[in-house]
Structure formats: C-alpha cells, structure tokens
Amino acid sequence: MGSKHRIQITVNQEEYDLLVHPDRTLLDLLRYDLGLTGTKEGCDEGDCGACTVIVNGKVVTSCLILAVEVDGTAITTIEGLHQGDELHPIQQAFVDSGAVQCGFCTPGMILTTKALLDEIPDPSEEDIKHYLEGNLCRCTGYTKIIDAVNMAIHQLK
Amino acid sequence: MDNFSIVGKRIPHRDAVEKAKGSAVFASDIKLNGTLHGKILRSPVPHAQICNIDISKAKKLKGVKAIITSKDTPQIKFSISPTWADKLILVDKVRYIGDEIAAVAAVDEETAEEALELIEVEWEELPAVFDPLEAMQPGAPLLHAAVENNISKTLTMECGSVAEGFAEADLIFEDTFQTQAQSHCSLETHCCIATCSPTDDVKIWVNSQAPHPLRQKLSAALNIDAAKIHVATPFIGGGFGSKIDLEPAQAICVLLAKKTGKPVKIEHSRKEQFMTTRMRHPTISKLKFGVKRDGTIVAKQAEVVMDNGAYNSHGPAVMAYNNVMFSTLYRVKNIKYEGRLVYTNKNWGGACRGYGDPQATFGQEVMLDVIAEELDMDPIDLRLKNANIPNEVTANAVKITSCGLKECLTQAREASGWIAKKAERKKYRGLGVAAMLYTGGGSIGSGFNYSGATLQMNADGTLHLLMGAVDIGQGSNTILTQMAAEIMGVEPETISLTTADTDTTFPCMGTFGSRVTFCAGNAVIEAANGLKQQLLENAADLLEANPNDLEMKDKKIFVKGSPDKAMAYAEIGAASFYKKKKPLVAHGYYNGPEDVSPEFDPATYRGYPAPAMVFGTHLAEVEVDPATGKVEVLNFTAAHDLGRAINPLLVEGQIEGGAVQGIGWSLMEDLQFENGEIVNPNFHDYKMLTIKDIPKFSPLLIETIDPDGPFGAKGIGECAMVATAPAIINAIYDAVGVRIKELPATSEKIFKGLKDK
Q: CA B167, CA B160: separation in Å to the nearest integer?
C-alpha cells in the first residue's frame, strides 16, 4: 500500500492537513475521512458524474482523482454551497424546478452547474448540455434540470 | 372544478432541500462504529456444479472475521411468490455469471476482496444455454433439474374464439417482434447495513422499494421470526423495479452480522449492479391480428417466448402482465395469448418499470401502425376506432372504470401539431404514435395490495404522518402529505413524517405497480378523515357544541358564525394529551379492490383485479440522418390519463423521466451477453441517454377523476415509459420507411434498412 503522504487542502474554505495513502481517491477521502457524504459514488469509473466536485474552479470526477493529486488545491463540495439554511441560488433553483427526484445525482448536477455559471454566466442551451453531459440522471429525464439551470441563470443575474 | 387549496398545486419535493444540500442520508452514507465490510464471491462461469469450496486460506487472512458458503445458509429457496421459489441465497450449483457462492466479512473492503481471491472453488462445468428458443428444445442443458425443457411457466388464455375472429376478418396481419434486456440503472447501487443484537434482533438499513415484504422474505429465507427483523429505509437513490425483490446480498449481510455480532455493510459495485440486477425480460412475440376494412380489430393473438434468465424472481407475474396489457388494450372480442417463460444461463429477469407491458405494447402498437398503413387510415383514427371506453368490462374480464384513452389520443394529436406536420412531410422527419394502458394502483391478484397510514396530532397541534409507503424519488412523501394537509387544513410542510419502517409504520406492499398514489393515498385519506372527525368531536366537547355546527379554518375550530371563540389545534392537541389523556390518532388501511371478478384466474390474470387502469398516448417526432442511420428525437408529446394530478410539477417529472428511459430502450440501451457474460456492465458501454439526447417534452395531464382514486388520482410511475418505444419506431418508419421490429433501433439497423430498401 505504501507509506502515507501529507497533503494540505482547503475544502469548503476549511483547511485540512492530512496523511493519506497514495491509492486513496479524492472521493473516498471526502466521504470516509472528512465525512462529506454529499459527494456520491455512482459508478467509481468516472462515467456517471455523481461524485463531481470542484477543484480550483474546475469540475472533476472525484472517483478518478487520487487524494495526493489535489495537494495544495481548493475544493468545493455540495456541502460548501449553502450558507446555513440559506440555499445557494442554484440549489434553490433545482428544488423549485422539480429537478430533484431521488437526489443521488443532484449534488454532482448542482456542482457542474456552479462551475458552468462561474465560467459562463449566460450560457446557451448548447453550453448547458455540453457541461452537464457527463452527469447522468435516471429519474428526471433532464428536462427539469435544464429548467433549473435556466432559473438559476435568471436568479444570479 | 373542485376547489382544493393544496391538492393540484405545483409543490416541490419535500425532500429536495436536503438532497440539494447533500445532507440526505442514503444507505451508503450510514456509518456505524466497528462496521465490517461484506463482499460476495460470484460465479465466473454460467453453469457448473460446485464440488468443493476451500476457505482455509481465506480464513487465515488477517482482518477476515467471517466466511459463509451454502453450508451456512438455510436451504430455503425464494422468489416473489413461494410457489415459484427457485433460488438459494448461496448456491451449490451456479446458473449464471454472478451467482452467489460465498461471502466474506472483513475489517475493510480491500481485505474482504483479497479474501475472496483466496477462496478455492472446484467446479464441474456444465453445458450452458443462452438462447431461450434453444433452451426450450428437447436435450438442451437443464438449469433446474425438475423443470422440463427449461420452461418455468406456460400461460395460455383464450377469450372468445380467435378462429372465428380471424375467419370474420377482412385482413390478417402477422409479424414477429423482439425486445432486448434493459438494466434499471438507478444511480445508487444496492446497499445495506445489518446489525444483530445479543438477543438476536436483526436490524437492516436498506434501499428497498418494498421494506415490509422484505421483512417477510428475509424471515422466510433465513428462518428468522419476522418479529425479530427490523427493516429501515434511508433515502433511496432510485429503483425502477430493481429494489423490490429480496436481494441475496441483503440476506448475506444479515447472516454475516449474525455470525460476527458486528454491523456489516454490503454495497454493490456498478459492475455487480449490472451483473445481478434483475433485467427487463427479453421477449420474442409472434403476433397475429384480424381486422375489418373499417379498422375494427376482430381478433388478436400473441405467442410469446420470454427469456427468464437463471431464476424466476418476478418472471411468472411479468409474463401474466404481458398478457393482461396485450389483451386489455383496445376493445377486441377474440383474444388468444400463449406465453412461455424460459430459463437460460444468464442474469435473471425481474421487475423493471412497466413489468412486461413495454414488451407487449411495442409489438401491438407497431402492428397497429402496419394495419393503419394497409388500410390507408390515420394511425390515431385507427386507435380511436378501437379505443377502450369508461365503465366497461373487456373480453378478458378486466373492469375499466375511468378511462381517458380517447382524450389522450385527441389531445396529443392537437398538441403535437400532428395534422399540419403530417401534411408538411419534411424530408427525413417522421411522426409516430402509440397508445398504452397499465394499472393505476397495483392489483390484488396475489391476494394483497395493502398500504397503511396513521395520522396523529401532537400535543402542540402539529401533525405526524406514519406510512409504510417508501419514496424512492418519485415524490410519494410529497403528494401523500398534500392529501393529508388538504383534509386537515394545514400546510403540507408542517406535517412531519415517518415512512417505510417495519417497526413503526403500518405495512405497505411497497413502491411498484404504480400503486402508491392510489393505495397509500386512500389509506392516508381514511386516516385524515378519521383524525378530522376526532378533532371535531374533541373541539365540540371543549366548546360545548354539536360537532355538526363546527367549522375548521386556519388551524382553528369554532362554531359557525363565531370565529372569535375558536379553539386552536394546539389547544385541542394539548387537551387531548393532558386533560383527556386520549391522544388523537387515526388509522387508514387500503387493500383492494374488493370486487374481484369471479372470472379472475391467478395464473393468466384473466379478470385482472386492478383498482383502476390508466391510459396514455405517446407521440414522437424524429429526424433520421440517412448517412448514418442515427435518430434524433426532436419533440415528444406524452398524454397520460392519471385521474387527477395531485402535484403537476412532480407528475410531469415522472412522465419525462419515464419517457426518457423509454427512449433509451428504443434506441440504444441493450444489456449484451456473450456466452452468458455481460459485455457492457458499465455506463461507458451501456448507453443511457444524457442531457444532450433528450427531445423537447410536452407532457399532457388528462384528468378523468377516477371514482375510487384518492381525490380521483391514479398511478403514473411505470406507465410513463410503456408507449415510448413503439411511438419512436413508428416515427422512424414515417421518416424513412424502415420498420424496426427488433429493439433497440440502433443506427446500424436503420442504416442497413435504408441500404436494403
């Protein structure tokens, strides 16, 4: 397994100084070491997007990244979006649009939307579909997810 | 129009905030101190007798706490019905790649996996059979020794006389249609955590669609008193039928917890999920229709071979549903159905959204398109000509109450611009239509269709609702509290909930058969009406008035005309606890319908006893790329007779999600086997639709107000995918003249069809 490595990361604006095994994925670090279980494991192969988090402003599938690779980065997980009881406008838009059914894909969907709107505040429908293509959802059929992104765009303006 | 203040409103899912914050706890998120990790040794071969299992090396591995094999499990077979039971929890003869052989509990996942590799299994490999038509032949390898020709079940039904019907017909149509295996692909895989107390009380947290039946099945399969099993459900990440049956992993988890005295967690990997989730049964359906020149269908017949995979699970019931749905759609006097459910050495089939209906509807509705073309009749007119109508009994003795099939057809035609687009005839573009029916509230065919609810008033006047029903994402928690809130005159979000917990809630059959809205809804209404009555009686007592003179408003009760002397719910609640010492609580329990037809046959489901039937029409507009055969679905109109939309926002979500699952099955989803091995057990090779692939949706909510439904509502969950495939296949034909009869309609098949023209 090899000896543990020391990494320093910022997760949801909180700093962590951690010792991790070289084969520990970022997903397992977040879920099992830091208890941030809002990040979901849907396939462990980088195909479904349920484990999406934002690392230095870019979306990544945390199941495909090793914890040692994110040393020195700033990470946002779903738990870092709302301020107490106040939801982030994107979270609120997902709730209000009926874009949440079973909710297993929801954290990943919301974080991908966050990265999209941080980068392109006024995206076209094509941009939205391009960004969210890697996030699978079996429940909603995606229509209400597009509604949610459009509502969030409007709210954030 | 009824004037409701909460029912019929677009209210977001009550659990959506927690889910959007990432704080909703799913099974995999539960963390108990000292949890061991369970892993299952699965068969790498499709058919073999196990001669010996040597666990000695694995046992010695540091961190391994328990290993179990077939010897450690009761030799009790299970299925959804005891009469079809054919599967042991851990087997001594493997029948498909993935069959459970042994299991390990260890301190972590890595150790458990390492231990699996150290278990030595000696086999005697047996010849295997993968094609159901081959499996039926004399001399084919037998999966289950006592089952001749691998035919698990033969189902034959004739109503009227098809011979007479075909003789009477002006035209006869015959064709064969094939459907493929589909996997449910809930984003959350199967997961459970079990504990066992020193007094042998078992608790399991599990993502089950049917926690109460699961308790019974665990009890039967493991020979444990059901009263000593507590099934609890955390949030559930989708099901689509995959989480109804007892999963061997759940029983194994309990056995390992009993053996070690520690909490044990088992979670399927995505590959395991594909390997072992009971797939949608593939079918080969030979259809024959007899039709009059005016479009009247006078006889129809189906000969179906259904690929059961290695074990029964829901198979016999899925085949019966295949019959019911084929036979009940349209007013046809002469009907014949012959079905054979055939074992093969593949992953087993099971409940999958639609339960045999999508397979039946695909063939029938493509056939109707063929007929319409031959008769030079508009496909919608042909369907209208034969459409079911309200308040009739069909030739196969199915009682239909509310029925909006004609409204679905006409409104879908209107909303889609069918007539104008058909006239315009854009090149490579096509329109296709398909109708469907399904149950809108489960069925009492098994003798059971129960759902219970309890509504209680707390001392502070707030309400607590306890229901056996489980919300797997479809939104039952939201709509059922809406119903209670409407009756009690409170805001739905103020009602707290306990659901789907076998120790605290009345039993519910579970979330399947599009039954929760109807069955649990009726239970909730009964409980709420009971509590309302108690509340009024208590208020009458406190106000020294007659209950009939009272009015309820803004969570207060007062004598009509005297709102100034009102009793608040909080005062009545407190008085019930502290003065009267008789807290207010009411129960509701549904188990219907009661008027089962005397013609009901539990084998064929002739006289199928559903409390209500739902109807729908899907209308697809596609564009086909002639250079590649690729289909783009542009627009999709989905009209559903759902009785009443308790919550239009949520029901639209059900329709859109179901239709997209249906589009996936139509065009690309195909669980593929090579020598019994699934070659695409991942989301990379098994193609689900992404956000890029979806059409523009127009869901149409047709409200027929069912006489027996809660607020007139009927179920919708499964119905939403049933008519999708034939609508798309018919649209492809309309676009380019290629008729696909074997799903999925891949680009390759369409391209070949274009070449061969």
A: 13
